[in-house]
Amino acid sequence: MEGLIWGGAAISVAGLAGLLWCIFKVASAKRAGLSEDELREAVKRVVPINMAALFLSVIGLMMVILGIFLA
Questions:
Q1: Per UniProt, which keywords does this protein have (predicted)?
Q2: How far is CA 31 from CA 7, 27, 41, 53, 71, in A?
């Protein structure tokens, strides 16, 4: 069960890194002074990555909780 906990923690950290990347990507697009349409397109490109990173974080946390529960 220890492997499940540490594996879940690693997956959760990977998801968190993806979420941080998305935040910095959108913030840099806002700072670039893009037009409304260009900014919308930049955000549209980041949304699938953001959802995947959020999914990874949730799955990782579920693995940690399951590992603690089963230990």
A1: Membrane, Transmembrane, Transmembrane helix
A2: 36, 6, 15, 23, 47
